[in-house]
Amino acid sequence: MGGVTHLPTVFSRADSLAKVESQVWDVVVIGGGISGAGVAQQAARQGWSVLLIEQQDFAWGTSSRSSKLVHGGLRYLKEGDIKTTLHSVRERERLMREAPELIEPQSFLFALCKSRKPGRWLFQLGLIIYDLMAGQRSHFYADLATTQKLAPGLAPANMQGSMVFNDAKTDDARLVWRVLAQAQQDGAVALNYASATNLQLENGLVTGIQITDNTTGKLLNVRAKTVVNATGAWADRLRGSVKGKPMLRPLRGSHLVVPIHRLPVEHSISFMHLQDGRPVFLYPWEGATLIGTTDLDHTHNLDQEASITPAEVRYLIDAVNEQFPAAHITTADLCACYAGVRPVVDDGRAQASKAPREHVVLDESGLITIAGGKLTTFRLMAQDALALAAKHVGKPFTRSDTAIFSPMPAPNPDWGQEVQHRLAGRYGHKATQVCEYILKQTDALYKADLLKTIPGTQTLWIELPIACQFEAIVHLDDLLLRRTRLGILLPRGGLDHLAHIKAICSYFLPWDETQWNAEIERYRSLIARHYQLPASA
């Protein structure tokens, strides 16, 4: 292999760290999930100087543990939340136009059962409104015979037919990375494993922040004209520095992952759980079937990764087996479990699932907090936050419909359409560049397999060294849970593949044998505690 030289657009943590104290930033964004990434991208696109910091890894929190759906919020129509639904539908359509290789259409099928709400006509009315918002007509009624053809094995009691409609899905962590890459392309600096320690105030206004480099413990003082708090479920903690009153209700959403051969579905099967009437779904994702979700108050330490409970496992398995009684899904079928915490604005309602999903933006002494909202509407949320921040920055902020993502260059025709599509979705306009670079640097022993998929997934082997070289990997879980999703797609978190992963990644990671062993043990413990069945399930 030849000497490795960095490409201009590489995420270099060392380079980012060196720039932190170099200037007075127009805006410092705290939080490296989709909300923070959106703020950084929109601000950088306006020509503002932007620093984004994340206390863990990029997309570590909710933005890698969501339901992976870029949906319009059909169920919010039932709650009368027309505004959220309208914004979500329009942003969904926009994202599908801009990045069809990452935000992909997903058809949904909702079985209609005798004496079970909602009835056909009420559901169809909601879908008519839903389609009108999108400027299209995509839903239709399927009779019983057609439903059984569309979804073999679907057989809830008294099924009479179904409603079929369209939404979209994505890889949430990769969406964060695509947005961050665009922010960096426009001049933003992003740093993971850097915690906000103290806000700095002068004359009652925020003028900077002290941060801790969590890899070394070093303290850094950052000057800023304004700070945007995009920390999701952690937002109230930072707001306490400016005496903001708590406003969030952390809600846990948990999911199960099973091999596609145990629950083969083409459509997303959506339904209301018999136990409590909550919406539940299952759908094909990344070569597996994803089942979700719960909606429970999360009272545990937010600094610890959320975990599914035995009761949630039973709740979701019962839901699946009620819809697919012949499947007989059990805990033995599960590849993985995962849980995330949603930052929902607390309106005092007793039932968690009815809490509003609209976002809130606050200006408290120059600390701009963005909270609530949905994955789908991150661009609108960012623009609302920056409109408030503009007076502190002293620069105008113009709401824009400019495309988020850069145009795609011509792909390498030798790679085949499926490989081209996969790489475009993960790396956008840099796909061909980073892929060809890795292929040139890789030992011939491994090169022939890099554009093949890892068995049981849709992930290409080359995604691993790309992440190691270009995507600020600090820990092994960064690589296997967020840059790729192998930790939730493969049995035992992909531990059985670690020898091969190490072989193809070692050249691109500056880890000696001692660090590799430490990272493997850290990862093994993490998977056992948070991504596998709880002990009593």
Structure notes:
- It contains 18 helices and 19 strands.
- Strands 4, 5, 6, 12, 13, 14, 15, 16 and 17 form a 9-stranded mixed beta sheet that branches. Strands 7-3-2-11-19-18 form a 6-stranded mixed beta sheet.
- The protein has 3 domains: 13-62 and 173-247 and 356-393, FAD/NAD(P)-binding domain; 107-168 and 249-350, D-Amino Acid Oxidase, subunit A, domain 2 (D-Amino Acid Oxidase, Chain A, domain 2); 413-530, Alpha-glycerophosphate oxidase, cap domain (Helicase, Ruva Protein, domain 3).
- The protein is of the alpha/beta class.
- It has helices spanning 13-19, 34-45, 74-78, 82-98, 120-134, 144-150, 172-185, 235-239, 310-323, 378-393, 417-427, 431-441, 444-447, 463-470, 476-483, 486-489, 498-505, 513-530; strands at 24-25, 27-30, 50-53, 104-113, 140-143, 159-169, 189-191, 194-202, 205-213, 219-224, 227-229, 248-259, 268-272, 279-285, 288-292, 296-297, 336-345, 360-364, 367-371.
- A hairpin with a 2-residue loop joins strand 14 and strand 15 (288-292).
- Helix 2 packs across helix 10 (378-393) and helix 11 (417-427) crosses helix 12 (431-441).
- 34% of the residues lie in helices and 22% in strands.
- Principal-axis shape: globular
Q: What is the CATH class of the largest domain?
A: Alpha Beta
The count of domains is: 3
Mean pLDDT: 93
Distinct helical segment count: 18
The first-to-last residue Cα distance is 48 Å
CATH topology of the largest domain: D-Amino Acid Oxidase, Chain A, domain 2
Taking pLDDT < 50 over at least 5 consecutive residues as the criterion, the unreliable ranges are 1-6
Give the % helix.
25-40%
- Strand elements, count: 19
Radius of gyration from CA coordinates: 23 Å
Estimated share of beta-strand residues: 15-25%
Under CATH, the homologous superfamily of the largest domain reads D-Amino Acid Oxidase, subunit A, domain 2
Biggest sheet character:
9 strands, mixed
Q: What is the CATH architecture descriptor of the largest domain?
A: 2-Layer Sandwich
Structural class: alpha/beta
